[in-house]
Amino acid sequence: MRGCEFPREDPESCHGVDPRAPHRHGPLRIYGYMNLSSTGQMPEMEEVDTNESNWLAKRIALISFLSLVMLMSVLGNLLVMVAVCKDRQLRKIKTNYFIVSLAFADLLVSVLVMPFGAIELIHQNWIYGETFCLVRTSLDVLLTTASILHLCCISLDRYYAICCQPLVYRNKMTPLRVALMIGGCWIIPTVISFLPIMQGWNSIGINDLIEKRKFSGNSTVCVFMVNKPYALTCSVVAFYLPLVLMVLAYQRIYVTARAHARQINMLQRAGGAGNANSADHQRNHRMRTETKAAKTLCIIMGCFCLCWAPFFITNVVDPFIDYSVPEQLWVACLWLGYINSMLNPILYAFLNKSFRRAFLIILCCGQKRYRRPSILGPGATCTATQINGSTHVLKKPQSFRSHSCLLLLRR
């Protein structure tokens, strides 16, 4: 197609655009023509090429960063779920059922929420329609709230396990109660996300402002703005109230863990580790295990708060300052929260020995060196049999092949 020709005496419009007028995005190219600078001089080609190169480099860096966050989030959370499903020892710990449900929520964030946010951020345009914008926003609120409620339930589970007697923990954390708590972690976010957002309760009183922001120049934006009542209610239920419960629970856990550490030191000084009886040894082992688990979960909770606190603070402040928070700050706070979905599996791998071993077994295709040592010891040949309905193992040590010992291992 042939370009427009502009006569010298009339530099007026080809579609109403003056090719010699300065443009806010740099040199303007129209059908092969480049505009002159404000001084009437042709801009340097090196400067134009440098600007284009910088823009392209920033775009590639942004795409690479967003892709890395999404990929690591998907793979990491899948690894957590597979590890718990395949490792019998991990399945015995009730806390890990909350962790699996949390990993599932983070996986959904990385699959259903992040990709569409990344596409809109890169192209600066929303092309999926108003209805899907509401659905995507509802999923965002739902999964974000579900994540923090799972962490709140994990803190309560650790509180009962460490600060209460074992009998109290078994009575409190029954399988039915665990299932009800996990169900609540999904039902409550659904109530405060899909119901008000799809009904438009969050936009009451600010509809005109939302309509103005939906269209920015020639592009359409998926706008999610909330009025003051919804901002306060949603933020309190989704973040501030669970945060207070977690802080109180972990503060009590920390005090109890310190007391457990002092008891362990006193027992070791009084009788020595080698003279401690079996009951003391089991109790000390349980104290160490529960204390380390509590520290791990504290770090996970701290990372969650560090990632999501900026967003929820901004979410509450923005309606009270006439929605003047810059769009760039909103995007930065939102993606900082999304990064938390990538961090949880990394924290499990580096801070939890059981998860680390399970990850290595999965990633290294079940190599024997990463498996837990057998209670029968190395070099033992065993046969299993059934006696009175129980499973028993016959072990023949290498140094005593003429004898056999009967180990009763009731399943």
UniProtKB/TrEMBL annotation:
**Where do the G-protein coupled receptors family 1 profile domain residues begin and end?**
76-348
Q: Which Pfam family name is an example for this entry? A: 7tm_1
Q: Primary place of residence?
A: membrane
CDD domains annotated for this entry? 7tmA_5-HT4
Q: Which residues cross the membrane?
A: 60-85, 97-119, 139-157, 178-198, 230-250, 296-317, 329-351
Q: Which GO terms describe its molecular function?
A: alpha2-adrenergic receptor activity; G protein-coupled serotonin receptor activity
GO cellular component terms listed in the entry, alphabetical order:
endosome membrane; plasma membrane; synapse
> What is its membrane topology?
Multi-pass membrane protein
Per its UniProt record, what InterPro entries does this chain match?
A: 5HT4_rcpt, GPCR_Rhodpsn, GPCR_Rhodpsn_7TM
Q: Name one GO biological process term.
A: positive regulation of MAPK cascade
Q: Where in the cell is it found?
A: Cell membrane; Endosome membrane
Keyword Transmembrane listed? The answer is yes
Enumerate the residue ranges of region (Disordered).
1-21
Print the keywords alphabetically.
Answer: Cell membrane, Disulfide bond, Endosome, G-protein coupled receptor, Glycoprotein, Membrane, Receptor, Transducer, Transmembrane, Transmembrane helix
SUPFAM superfamilies (alphabetical): Family A G protein-coupled receptor-like
Q: Does the keyword Phosphoprotein apply?
A: no
| Entry's family note | Belongs to the G-protein coupled receptor 1 family.
Q: How does it assemble?
A: Interacts (via C-terminus 330-346 AA) with GRK5; this interaction is promoted by 5-HT (serotonin).
Q: What does this protein do?
A: G-protein coupled receptor for 5-hydroxytryptamine (serotonin), a biogenic hormone that functions as a neurotransmitter, a hormone and a mitogen. Ligand binding causes a conformation change that triggers signaling via guanine nucleotide-binding proteins (G proteins) and modulates the activity of downstream effectors. HTR4 is coupled to G(s) G alpha proteins and mediates activation of adenylate cyclase activity.
This chain's protein is named: 5-hydroxytryptamine receptor 4
Organism equals Carassius auratus
Q: Which gene encodes it?
A: htr4
